[in-house]
Each structure stands twice: as C-alpha cells, then as structure tokens.
C-alpha cells in the first residue's frame, strides 16, 4: 500500500472535531461510564481474534519482548547476550535497534488475509508495548513507525486492510509502565535491581542508571524511555496516545495490559469516557478490555492472560494466548504449541462464554514464519468445516464434562495452564437456537460414548431430541437418550482426529 493510497483510505473514515473527555453521553466517572454495554453482540459472536507482538524488540529476537528491559538488568540472559553481541547498554542502547527495524517485507493485506483464513473475526496490532515505540503515525512521540524504523503507518495500513476485509479492528496498549518513576531514588532502586531483577524498577520498564542512555535527559530520547515529568507524561503521552489512536484509526476493541492501576484513577476515567464518547459519535459499538482488576467490569471485558476460567461465566470474557510456548514476540528458536492444542483452548473458552485473542509473532522484516502459518492454516481449516459450533454460539447450562482438570486462578498459574492437555474424553458444549453442539476434544476411541450432561440427574429440565448428526460429515450417528445420558455411536475412523462435533437438535 502506497502512502498516498493509505492517506486516501484513512480519509474515508469519519472525522470529528476533538472533544473533551466528557463531551457526549458519558461523563468521566465510573457511574456514568458503567452504563455502557461491555460486550455487544458482535463481540460475543466473534469468538476469535488475532493480534501480534511486533516491534523494535523483534530485532534482537532474543529471550522475549521484555528484552528492552532485561538488556539492562545484570544477571539475566538478555543482559549477557547484549553485552556479548552488541556491547554494554551504555554504548549500544535500545534506541540503536530502531534503524534495524525496517519491516521491508511487511504486507498488511497479506497478513489480514492470513488471519481471516485462520478464522479471526477481529485483528490488529500491539499499538505500543512497554518499550515506548508507537506502531502508528504519531504526532506525540518521534519514536513511531511512520517516522523511524519502517517509516510506515503500520497501524493505519492494517486498519484499512482489516476493514476492507470486513473484519473488526483491535489495538492494544501496554504503555502504562513506560514512565520513569524512579528518578529520585536511583541508587536505592539500582541496588534492588541487582539483588532481584523483578522487584527493582518493577513499576517502570527501563531501569535508571547514570551510565545508560535511557537515563539521559535528552529531549528526543525522553519520549522513548519515559523520562518526562509525570503530570506531563500522563496527559500528553499516556492519555494522548490512546486518544490519538482512537481518533485516527477508530478501533472496535481497545485493550489494556497489566499495570494500568499505576495510572491515576481520574485518568482512567477520562480515557474510558473519551473512547466511549468518540464511539458514540460514530454510532460504533466498541469494547474496552482490561486485565487484573484495573478497570470496573460494569463497562469492560475481563481478560485472562494465558489462562482460562474453570466454570461457565454469565458475562463474556477474554483470554489472550499465544501460538508460542514462550515469548510473545519472535525469538530465534521459538517453539510453538501443536495446532490441536490451540483449537482445544478455543473450544474450551467458547464453551465458558469466552473469546480468544490469539497472538502471532512476526519477524522484524515483516514475515510470519512458516511454522506459525501452518498452525493458523490448520486452525482455519477446522473452523471452515466446523465453525457453526463456534461462531455466534452461546453457552449451554454447563460448559462440558471430562477428566481433565485445569488449574485455579489466572496468570499466576499460567505455567500450569500450559501443561493442560485435553483428550477425547473431554467434551465441550455450545448452543445456537434449538441446537446443542457437543465437541469431543479428540476422536472417540470407545465404540459408544455417553454425554453425561444429558443425564436425568444433571439436566435442569427435560428435553426432547429430534436428531443427532455429525457436523461436516455424511456418516450417520446412532443415538439413544437414557437415564444416564446421551449415548452416541458412529464410524469414528472417518471423523476428525482433532475434535469431533455433534449437532443435537432439540424439539421446540
């Protein structure tokens, strides 16, 4: 996409005169904002979105997207790697990677097409991670993708491509911890950091040390490393960047990472009011997604990172999960989850009234590695055949049954969640109208299977079944509804070995 065509495409989006935070139906307080419907129908129907951690941190491609922080932290692998490959951070700072982030092979239309073929109903970028580099054409910071590195409006090009494909658009913000909060306690905090890499400077992404460029008072570098007076940073940078993206690209979903609680409540209220009032001007149904209790759930959707709910939730929720087993961004030697595991995670989430936001990890040059493409293509192939059991569905009275047990809690147990492996003995349910979909998370091995959710002891009310069939198959299903449940038999060898979907039609 040429710069001229991007400008012309963005120009077709409605533009409104800048409003103050509270101009519109929502005032900048939780009570007023709480009147917003957190999860509109389109979001509840979508079930799957794809985003990606892609930025300057993709250049070193080492350890994780936290490289910008860890390259400054003694005792970490990233620190030792940086010293050995690039030299001390005092000589080669994070900003020195920016010219190497050229993204010369980035093709937004091709990316969006891949994500759509994978089954995503909304797509978009990590607009800004903790590192202070904006992936859009920003007037607020010189450290943006249109002026440095790729010299392209990455977010703008993706927004145009997504909407041309009929997809919703998401932007995610992780910049709440970019502010340098330890300017007055450098020696004390540096001692903490050397003793424990996580407690020292944990509220700020970049450590403070007199020898490091992220601690220099230089007008341009300050905008990357967060060395700005807090009042100015909150108004101009944190809130300003959210407003700028909302005004320029009109995302349908605005998603916030952890540490949002480090932003004063009044600013969070102003942010939410601004997002919702601008959407109201466009008659747009937007979704605000939060993590870790830092926004009220009266108007926002709860997100669980790399984890899932153990029970069906009456309110829609989200999980952000990644194709990889480790880093969210591309790193050398990155390993991936099997495609079947990703599919099972999706089906489990949907059965509990959730939505999956799946992360992809492109290379710095703008290519998506082949092994990630294969996972996405496999996921999309299954959804093209069996997607009626996913899209537009709602939960049944129970999410499912089976022997597999998930950990309790959320991200604090994400390593335990990563060990969960579902099997053909696990079944998940979803409904649509008078149809109940039952999905076994693997091909059945027994001659007959019994769905205990249909037993007289478990059913909340009597039902009458008209028919049972296999989705996307001509094979017949033999079935009987008995006291202990619904008994099913078919030619299992001809069913999908990843997940088998039964379509159970209930009499009106």
Question: Mind explaining what this structure looks like?
Answer:
- This protein has helices spanning 3-11, 30-33, 41-46, 67-70, 77-85, 108-117, 154-164, 186-195, 221-225, 230-249, 265-281, 339-351, 370-386, 414-417; strands at residues 48-52, 122-128, 168-173, 253-256, 287-291, 301-305, 317-322, 354-360, 400-401, 427-432, 435-440, 449-451, 465-470, 478-482, 485-489, 500-506.
- α6 (108-117) packs across α7, α10 (230-249) runs parallel beside α11 and α12 (339-351) packs across α13 (370-386).
- It has two domains: 3-59 and 101-179 and 228-389, TIM Barrel, CATH 3.20.20; 420-506, Golgi alpha-mannosidase II (Immunoglobulin-like, Sandwich), CATH 2.60.40.
- The chain has an eight-stranded parallel barrel, surrounded by four helices. The protein has a five-stranded antiparallel beta sheet with strand order 9-10-11-16-13, with helices on one face.
- With 508 residues, it is α/β, with parallel strands linked by helices.
- Helices cover 27% and strands 17% of the residues.
- The longest helix has 20 residues, at 230-249.
- The N and C termini lie far apart (52 Å).
- Mean pLDDT is 93; it is low at 14-19.
């Amino acid at each position: 996409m040429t710069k001229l065509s991007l400008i012309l495409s963005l120009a077709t989006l409605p533009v409104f005169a800048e409003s103050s935070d509270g101009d519109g139906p929502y005032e900048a307080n939780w009570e007023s904002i709480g009147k917003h419907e957190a999860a509109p129908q389109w979001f509840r129907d979508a079930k799957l979105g794809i985003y990606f951690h892609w930025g300057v941190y993709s250049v070193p491609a080492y350890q994780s997207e936290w490289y910008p922080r860890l390259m400054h932290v003694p005792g970490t692998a990233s620190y030792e790697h940086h010293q050995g490959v690039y030299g001390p951070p005092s000589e080669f700072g994070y900003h020195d990677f920016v010219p190497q982030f050229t993204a010369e092979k980035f093709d937004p239309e091709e990316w969006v097409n891949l994500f759509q073929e994978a089954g995503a109903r909304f797509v978009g970028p990590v607009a800004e991670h903790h590192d202070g580099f904006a992936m859009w054409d920003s007037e607020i910071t010189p450290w943006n993708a249109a002026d440095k590195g790729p010299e392209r409006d990455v977010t703008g090009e993706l927004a145009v491509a997504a909407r041309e494909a009929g997809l919703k658009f998401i932007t995610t913000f992780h910049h709440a911890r970019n502010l340098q909060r330890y300017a007055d306690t450098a020696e004390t905090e540096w001692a903490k950091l050397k003793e424990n890499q996580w407690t020292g400077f944990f509220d700020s992404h970049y450590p403070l040390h007199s020898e490091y460029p992220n601690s220099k008072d230089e007008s341009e570098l300050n905008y990357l490393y967060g060395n700005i007076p807090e009042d100015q940073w909150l108004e101009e940078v944190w809130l300003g960047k959210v407003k700028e993206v909302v005004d320029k690209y009109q995302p349908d979903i605005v998603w916030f990472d952890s540490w949002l609680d480090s932003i004063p409540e009044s600013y969070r209220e102003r942010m939410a009011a601004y997002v919702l009032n601008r959407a109201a001007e466009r008659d747009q149904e937007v979704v605000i997604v939060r993590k870790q209790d830092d926004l009220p759930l009266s108007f926002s959707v709860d997100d669980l990172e790399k984890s899932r709910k153990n029970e069906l939730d009456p309110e829609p929720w989200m999980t952000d999960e990644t194709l990889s087993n480790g880093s969210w961004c591309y790193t050398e030697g990155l390993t991936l989850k099997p495609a079947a595991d990703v599919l099972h995670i999706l089906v489990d989430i949907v059965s509990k009234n959730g939505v999956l936001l799946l992360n992809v990890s492109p290379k710095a040059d703008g290519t998506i590695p082949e092994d990630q493409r294969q996972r996405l293509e496999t996921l999309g192939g299954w959804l093209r055949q069996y997607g009626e059991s996913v899209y537009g569905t709602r939960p049944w009275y129970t999410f499912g049954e089976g022997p597999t047990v998930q950990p309790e809690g959320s991200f604090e147990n994400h390593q335990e969640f990563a060990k969960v492996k579902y099997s053909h003995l696990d079944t998940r349910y979803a409904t649509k109208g008078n149809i109940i979909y039952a999905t076994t998370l693997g091909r059945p091995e027994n001659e007959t299977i019994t769905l205990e959710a249909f037993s007289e002891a478990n059913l909340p009310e009597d039902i009458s079944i008209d028919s049972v069939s296999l989705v996307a198959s001509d094979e017949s299903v033999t079935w009987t509804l008995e006291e202990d449940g619904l008994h099913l038999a078919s030619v299992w060898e001809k069913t999908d070995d990843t997940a088998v979907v039964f379509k159970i039609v209930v009499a009106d």
